[in-house]
Design a protein that fits this description.
The structure holds two protein chains of two kinds. By secondary structure, chain A is mostly helical. Helix content of chain A is 73%, strand content 0%.
Chain lengths: 264, 262
C-alpha cells in the first residue's frame, strides 16, 4: 500500500471514529446540528431585510449572497467536521499535548487535526446546502463544481487555522488571538467582495485569505472556467503547503510538556 | 457600605485585577471592533450609493453599530466559565462558600464589564469617528453611555442565566447561539428595528433585546422613537424579570444537584 493511500485510510478511520463518538450522544448531536443551522439562517435575516430594500449591492443580488453564505458555511462545516482538532491546535502545542501524538507512527499534523470533530459542523454543511439550493443561481449539473469549490474553501480554512494556531510554537499562549484571527477570516468571507478595495482587498487574498474561502469559489460556481479552477486549486494547494511547512518548522522547536498522560 | 455589599465588591475587585492582567481577549475584541466597523462603513457607503430609502444617514448607522457592538462586546460571556465549572464539578466547592454563587458570579462579571467597557467604548468612539469623520451631538452620546452600560449589565445577567442551564444541558452553546441571533435581529444589532417588517418589531417588543441594544443606540439616530424615561422603565422591568428567572433556575438547579447525589 502506498503512503498516500495509507494516509487516506487513516483519515477515513479518524473521521469514522469521531462520527461514532459524536453519535454516541444523539440528543446533544442533533441539538448542535439544528441550532447551528438555525444560527446561520438567523444571521442571513440581516441580508434578507437589507436586500429587500436595496436590490443590488455593488452588482451583488440576494442570490449571490446566498451562494456566498452557502459555500462558506458548507466549507467551514466540512473543515470542523473532518479536521475539528484545528481549533485546539494552539492549546495542544502550548500544553505539550503533542507528546502523545509524536509517538504514533502517523503524521502528527493529520492526527492533531483529526483528533476532534465538531458536531455543529453538520449543521453548517446542511445550512450551506440549503442556502445554495435556495439561491436559484445554480443548476444541478454544477454540483461537481460546487463540491470542488467547497472542498477548496475548506482546505484554505483548515490551512489558515493551522497557520494561526501554529504561532503557539513560537509565541506560546496564542489561542485567543489565533481564534480571533480565524473568526476574522470567517467574518470577511461572509460579506460581498465589492465592499472591499485597495490594500484591504490585497490582504483578503494573502494574509487573511477570505478571497480563497468565499469570493473565488463563488466566482467559480457562477462562471466555471479552467482559469478559475486552476487559480482556486493553486491557492488552496499553496495555503495547505505553507501550513504543513510552518507546522513542520514549529514542530522542530516543540518542547515536551513532560507530562504522563494516558492516550488511546 | 454594608458587610454584604463589601463581600460581593471583593469578587468584583478580584475580577478587575484578573482582567487587567489578562488583556489579550479585550484587545482581540477591540481588533474585531475595528474590523466590523470598517466592514460596515463600507457596506453603508455601498448601500447609500445604491440609494437606500431610509431616513438615517450612513454615518449615523455606523455610530449606531458602534454603540450596539460596544454593548455586546463589553458584556463578558460568563456562561462559558459557569458551564466549565459545572462540567468539571468545581461548582460544588463554590456552592459551599458563605456567599451566594449567583451574586458572586454576577459581581465578578460586572467587574470584568467595568474593565472592558471603557476600553471598548474608546475604541468604538475613535473607530466610528475615523470611519465617518463625524461625531454625534454630545447630548446624544451622554445618553447612550449610561443606557449602554445598563444594557450591557442586563446582557451579562442573561449570560449568567444561560450558564446556569448547564446544570441540565451538557453544552449551553446552542442556547447561547440562538439567544445571540435573536439579539441580532430582535435587538437590532446591525440594522435598527425600523428596517424590519412590522411583525418582527411586534415580537421584538416582547423581548428584552430592544431595551438592551437598539434602545440605547437609537439615540444616535435622533429618530425620537423612544424617550429616555421609557427606556429606563423597560430596562428596570427586564432587570426584575431576569433576576426572578435567574433565582428560579438556580433554585431548581441546586435541588437537582442534591437529588443527583451532591
Amino acid at each position: 500500500m502506498t503512503a498516500s493511500s495509507n494516509t487516506l485510510t487513516f483519515v477515513r478511520a479518524l473521521v469514522a471514529t469521531n462520527l461514532k463518538a459524536s453519535l454516541a450522544q444523539r440528543g446533544a448531536f442533533a441539538m448542535q446540528v439544528v441550532f447551528m443551522a438555525l444560527n446561520n439562517f438567523t444571521f442571513f435575516v440581516f441580508w434578507w431585510v437589507l436586500m429587500r430594500r436595496v436590490r443590488t449591492l455593488g452588482g451583488w443580488q440576494i442570490g449571490d449572497i446566498q451562494v456566498l453564505f452557502g459555500i462558506v458555511a458548507a466549507a467551514f462545516g466540512l473543515a470542523v467536521t473532518v479536521a475539528g482538532g484545528v481549533r485546539h491546535l494552539g492549546r495542544l502545542i502550548d500544553d505539550g499535548d503533542l507528546d502523545t501524538l509524536l509517538t504514533q507512527p502517523r503524521s502528527v499534523l493529520i492526527y492533531a487535526l483529526g483528533i476532534r470533530s465538531q458536531p455543529s459542523g453538520f449543521g453548517d454543511l446542511i445550512s450551506g446546502a440549503i442556502f445554495i439550493a435556495a439561491s436559484g443561481q445554480v443548476s444541478w449539473w454544477r454540483l461537481p463544481v460546487i463540491a470542488g469549490a467547497v472542498l477548496a474553501s475548506a482546505l484554505v480554512f483548515v490551512a489558515c487555522g493551522v497557520l494561526f494556531f501554529s504561532l503557539a510554537f513560537w509565541l506560546g499562549k496564542v489561542e485567543t488571538a489565533a481564534r480571533q484571527l480565524w473568526d476574522l477570516l470567517i467574518t470577511f468571507s461572509l460579506y460581498p467582495e465589492p465592499l472591499f478595495g485597495g490594500m484591504l482587498r490585497l490582504a483578503l487574498f494573502t494574509v487573511l485569505p477570505a478571497g480563497f474561502v468565499g469570493y473565488l469559489p463563488v466566482r467559480l460556481v457562477h462562471a466555471p472556467s479552467l482559469a478559475s479552477v486552476a487559480l482556486l486549486a493553486a491557492g488552496a494547494c499553496a495555503y495547505v503547503a505553507l501550513a504543513a511547512f510552518v507546522f513542520d518548522r514549529g514542530l522542530r522547536r516543540y518542547s515536551s510538556g513532560s507530562r504522563f498522560t494516558a492516550f488511546g | 457600605m454594608t458587610a454584604l455589599a463589601r463581600k460581593y465588591a471583593a469578587f468584583a475587585r478580584i475580577a478587575i485585577a484578573q482582567a487587567r492582567r489578562e488583556r489579550a481577549e479585550v484587545y482581540g475584541r477591540a481588533a474585531f471592533f475595528v474590523v466590523i466597523l470598517g466592514v460596515f462603513s463600507s457596506l453603508w457607503r455601498a448601500v447609500a450609493d445604491a440609494g437606500l430609502p431610509i431616513a438615517a444617514e450612513p454615518r449615523s448607522l455606523v455610530w449606531y453599530l458602534a454603540a450596539t457592538e460596544w454593548i455586546v462586546l463589553s458584556a463578558p460571556p460568563i456562561h462559558l466559565e459557569i458551564q466549565e465549572a459545572i462540567r468539571r464539578g468545581d461548582v460544588v466547592y463554590q456552592l459551599g462558600r458563605p456567599a451566594s454563587y449567583v451574586i458572586a458570579e454576577l459581581a465578578a462579571a460586572l467587574g470584568l464589564l467595568a474593565v472592558r467597557a471603557p476600553l471598548l467604548g474608546l475604541t468604538a468612539f475613535v473607530c466610528a469617528y475615523a470611519f465617518t469623520g463625524w461625531i454625534p451631538p454630545a447630548c446624544a452620546l451622554a445618553i447612550v453611555v449610561p443606557f449602554g452600560l445598563a444594557g450591557a449589565a442586563l446582557l451579562t445577567a442573561l449570560f449568567l442565566w444561560t450558564g446556569l442551564l448547564a446544570f441540565w444541558l451538557q453544552d449551553v452553546s446552542p442556547i447561547y447561539w440562538v439567544g445571540q441571533k435573536l439579539m441580532f435581529i430582535l435587538g437590532g444589532l446591525m440594522l435598527p428595528l425600523q428596517f424590519y417588517p412590522e411583525i418582527v418589531r411586534r415580537v421584538a417588543a416582547l423581548t428584552p433585546f430592544p431595551a438592551i441594544l437598539g434602545g440605547p443606540a437609537s439615540f444616535l439616530l435622533n429618530d425620537g422613537l423612544i424617550a429616555p424615561g421609557a427606556l429606563a422603565g423597560r430596562l428596570a422591568i427586564w432587570s426584575v424579570v431576569t433576576a426572578v428567572g435567574v433565582a428560579w433556575v438556580f433554585r431548581r438547579a441546586r435541588a437537582a444537584l442534591t437529588v443527583n447525589g451532591g
